Every structure is written in C-alpha cells, then in structure tokens.
C-alpha cells in the first residue's frame, strides 16, 4: 500500500480534523486570523492526526474525542513551527512565506502564543485529566528542547547523546504522544498504550534523523533550499557530528570550520561530511529506530491499522524527500 | 490602613505562593531556569495573588487551592511580560535587566513559551473544568490584545473604544479573573463571584489608565525612564488620544507628529499633551472606574477583606508611582 492510499482512505476524517482546527483558530483579530490560517494551510503531512486516528482503532474508536486530540496536537505543532521560524530566520516553509517573513518576528511570536492559548482552550473541552497532564508535560519538554537547540548552535563539541535528546524533544515526543493519546482517548489497554507510544517515539526519531540526512543529500529542488542549510544556520546534526567525532575527515573538517565562517565554505564542508561515513551511519541508526518501532508494533493485536502503521514506518525509512 | 500593612498581614501566604511559583518554574535547562527566575525575582506588587487571596475569603477559604490559582495567574503575567519586553524593545523592567536584554529576543520568546507551558501544567493540577475554561479563555484575550496593541502602534486615528478594549485585555481582565477565580476556588455564591469580577475589572481599568497618565506626569526617577516613553515607542494612550481628538491642541499636535519622528520632538509633544485637558480627563475616567469598583464592593458581605479591597481601590486611584 502506498502512502497516498493511506491518506485517501482516511481523507474524510482528516478533513473533519482540519475543519476543527480551522474553527478553533478562527478569530476577529485579523492579523492573528490570517497568520494562523496561513500556517494552517501550509499544511504538511498531518502525520500527527493520522497517528491519533490509527492508534484510536486499538481501543473503542470514538471519532469525536480523537478529533479534538488530533486538532490539539496539530495546533501545538503549528505553534512550535511559527516560533522555530523566528529562531531559524526562515523565510519559507513548504514553499510558502513564513509568518515572520510575511509579517515580522513580533507577529510570529504572538501567533505562536495565540495558538498555544487556543490549544489550551481546546484541551479544556476534553475533560480528561490524564490527557491534560500528558499534553502539558510535552509542551514543557518541547520548549526545553528548543532552547537546548539554540544553546547547541555551532557547538561541534556536542555529543551524540545531546543530539538524540534534542531530536527527541523536537520531533519524536510529539509523534509518540500522538499514538499514545489516540489509544488513551479510546480507552485502550495500558500495554497497548505503551507499545503505541514506543512505535510513535521510534518512528519519530527515525523521521528526524532522515530529515537531517536529506538536508545533506537532497537537491535544491527537493528541499526548497540548498543542501547544507541546517549547517549554514549553525544546526549541527548527526552526519556532521559523526564526521567530526568518528571519521578520518576530522582534521580537514576542523580546519574548514575553525573560524566559524561556515556558510562561506558550505559546499566544501558538505563535501567533507559526505566523504565521511556520516550519511551512512545516520541511515543505519534511523533503520535501527525503525526496527524498534516495528518490534513494538508486533506486540499489538492484529488489526488492519497495524499493517498501516507498518507501511508508514517502511515509508519513513526509505523516504527521499 | 496603608498598602504596606495589607502586604504585611498577608506576607506568609504571599511567601508560600512565591515558593509555589519558584518550584513550578524550576528546570534543569539552565538558561530557562535563570531567565524565568530573573523575571520572577523582578517581582512587582504580586497584586494578582493578593486579589486571589482576598477574594477567597468570600467563600470557603482553602489556601492550598488558592495558592495554585494565584501562582498560575502570576506565571501567565510573567509570560506576557517577557514577550511584551520583546515588542517594546525594553532593556529594563523595575530597574533590572530584562530577559531580552540580558540574553536576547529568542531566549525571551522561549522563556515566555516555557512559562505558558508551566502555567498549563500547573492548572492541570487544579482539576476544576470551570477554572480551566476561564484561564484558557483569558489567555486568548490577552494575546489578541497584544497583537491589537502592535496594530495600534502610532495610530493616532484610533478611538477611545479601541484604547479601552486594549487596556481591558492588557491589564483589567487578568485582575478581574484574579478576584473571580479566588471566589470560584472557594465555592463562593454566583452573585459574589460576579461582584468580585466587577471589582477586579474596574480596578484594573483604573490601574492601567493611571499607569498611562504617570508615563506623562512622572519624573525620570519615579518612572525609571523619561516621561513620554510610551509615546516614543508608538504606544498612544488616553492623554494623547484626548489631546488629538477632543482638545484645542489638536492642530499643533498634528503638526508636531506629521512626519512620524515623534521621539525627536518628544518633549514638545509631551508639553502639548499636558496643555490639553488629557491628563485631567484620564484621571476623571480612572476615578469613574474606581467608583464602579467600589459600587460592586458595596454589594458584597461585610467581612474585613471587603475593607481591604476598598483600601486597595483608594490607593490605586491616588497612586503617583
């Protein structure tokens, strides 16, 4: 089954969730309305809603509950994106102007605040203290991760552990919580909730590692930005860390980066990292996370959504864009 | 009774609330910890906690519940302050360096996000859906108000109504909700809750109007910044709006501001606004809000905290710093 088929089968429910998000973020305040809807329409894969819905089938599937959980997670995600764009000084996201580019950093800041406020408002409708607690906890983790990311900018001394901790907070936690909450909102068994969490977490780790690899191996057309953009901005990801810590390219790389003017020599730096085993190492690590995700899946009951989650994990391991 | 006496009498409970805030915002992430504690220590009058506690006496006073409500409101307030400092480009607040000055705008942004996340985490402990709903709703209002404030920057055409709506969201709502939630958390009667809300709201409106007046009439020593600072930054408050819309100074003022280089002529602009009746008009309007607050108070049962709330309203009407 292709990814498109999965989305096609779920299209009605995803549309409903999108309607819920759109209604939730609607406001008379024009700038906030336009900015948050621009962000919303830039869309993306709606992977969090997909995970919530699929996980919901492992319990007593109630779409009305799942819809709100999925919308809340997507809104948190949007809030972090708009604040990330300020940090990354990003003018485009998925080919569209970012809020900070179309308006400015201040509007981007308040649009993020607004989305967090709306997120809070949405979850008060859920009236499930367990879900509240999980959601408020991950929000803290995400923000701590974002400030760690700033701290680790241009830090070539950071360890692999620091990198993994950062991508956990940046990406994996929100995916883990998507499957977890889908199961909890459907009153699934505790064990089932735990395995679904593990699936989401491991897929999320693999997803971010592959994302970081693609920043080196993708073409400008595929990425919508030149290769090595993360690095130019000071975001040192796994391929670069491998190259500097574990490869023969170490000395040459240190020479290239010694005066911090990386962006001027970005092509040389990227070439050097590619010569190291950094890309292959990263892909292997991503593959290990995919296997762990699939091991968690195996322990789940055999329903057809289990197969779908398996397909998604396979797709993430192999994606090239 | 003096304001100091009120604080002295409540000092133990306020200390406990401060401890709750400090524990809530503690984190291993060094920058977030330092930045949020710096903000916390800059302190201020803790007027929201004071309102929560005083209102709590109109019902079944349970300090443990009130403590969490008060801490949550103070944390929301801190989050909006740190984001405001980014908008206002403010280097100092209450004589201390702001987060954006000591670190930078990005740290200030994430410190605000972090505080909002912690706020959310704190209110999940309250397990009272009514309180959740009120708190999530005001957060939306506050953010909408902040973006309105940006929109209204340097807008001399704005109406009195726009100004009032803005200060409602900037200041009055949070004070209104402080007395309201203090009463709700103590299971006070519906009517009592309503009157306490009205008291907080009207005192809040008066407080902000007086604050805006003091920006014109205070000395640099009193304000910690030169008179007319709001205006220099483009924040057009009531005295200026009165001068341009309702006074004989209109033509001269329009001449002074016509090329938008206000900060260069700030002394002349301030003098012109002072010559209009703008300061007196604003004070009269503040006084009207104080009277409304006191009318709401009159309908409340005669307990000693009613007297205290009366004293606070009197103080706010007359304050000169």
Description of the structure:
The structure is a homodimer of 321-residue chains. Chain A is mostly helical and 321 residues long. Chain A has a single domain (3-318), classed as Farnesyl Diphosphate Synthase (Orthogonal Bundle). Chain A contains 16 helices and two strands. Chain A has helices at 3-25, 30-41, 47-56, 63-88, 99-102, 105-124, 129-152, 160-185, 190-217, 220-223, 229-232, 238-246, 250-257, 266-275, 278-298, 304-318; strands at residues 92-93, 96-97. The longest helix of chain A has 28 residues, at 190-217. The two termini of chain A are 18 Å apart. The interface between A and B is large, with 39 and 38 residues.
Radius of gyration of chain A: 20 Å
Gap from first CA to last CA of chain A: 18 Å
CATH fold type of chain A: Farnesyl Diphosphate Synthase
Largest sheet of chain A: 2 strands, antiparallel
Which structural class fits the helix and strand makeup of chain A? Answer: mainly alpha
Q: Helices and strands of chain A, in N-to-C order?
A: HHHHEEHHHHHHHHHHHH
The general outline of chain A is globular
Give the CATH architecture of chain A.
Orthogonal Bundle
When the domains of chain A are counted, the total is: 1
Considering residues with a beta carbon less than 8 A from a beta carbon on another chain, report the largest interface and each chain's count: A-B, 39 and 38 residues
């Amino acid at each position: 089954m292709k990814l498109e088929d999965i989305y096609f089968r779920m299209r009605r429910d995803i549309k409903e969730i999108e309607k819920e998000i759109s209604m939730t973020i609607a406001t008379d305040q024009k700038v906030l309305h336009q900015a948050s809807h621009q962000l919303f329409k830039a869309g993306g894969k709606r992977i969090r809603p997909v995970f919530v819905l699929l996980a919901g089938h492992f319990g007593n599937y109630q779409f009305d509950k799942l819809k709100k959980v999925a919308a809340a997670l997507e809104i948190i995600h949007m809030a972090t994106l708009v604040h990330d764009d300020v940090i990354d000084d990003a003018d485009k996201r998925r080919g569209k102007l970012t809020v900070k580019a179309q308006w400015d950093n201040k509007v981007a800041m308040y649009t993020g605040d607004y989305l967090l406020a709306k997120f809070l408002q949405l979850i008060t409708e859920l009236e499930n203290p367990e879900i509240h607690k999980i959601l408020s906890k991950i929000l803290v983790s995400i923000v701590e991760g974002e400030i760690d990311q700033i701290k680790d900018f241009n830090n070539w001394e950071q360890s692999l552990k620091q990198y993994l901790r950062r991508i956990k907070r940046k990406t994996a936690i929100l995916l883990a919580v998507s499957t977890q909450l889908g199961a909890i909102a459907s009153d699934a068994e505790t064990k089932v909730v735990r395995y679904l969490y593990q699936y989401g977490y491991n897929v999320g780790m693999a997803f971010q590692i592959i994302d970081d690899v693609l920043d080196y191996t993708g073409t400008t057309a595929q990425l919508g930005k030149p290769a090595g953009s993360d690095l130019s901005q000071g975001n040192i990801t796994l391929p670069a860390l491998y190259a500097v810590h574990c490869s023969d390219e170490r000395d040459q790389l240190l020479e290239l980066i010694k005066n911090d003017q990386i962006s001027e020599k970005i092509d040389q730096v990227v070439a050097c990292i590619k010569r190291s085993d950094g890309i292959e190492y990263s892909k292997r690590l991503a593959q290990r996370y995919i296997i762990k995700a699939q091991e968690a899946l195996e322990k789940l009951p055999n329903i057809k959504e289990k197969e779908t989650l398996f397909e998604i994990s396979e797709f993430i391991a192999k994606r090239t864009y």
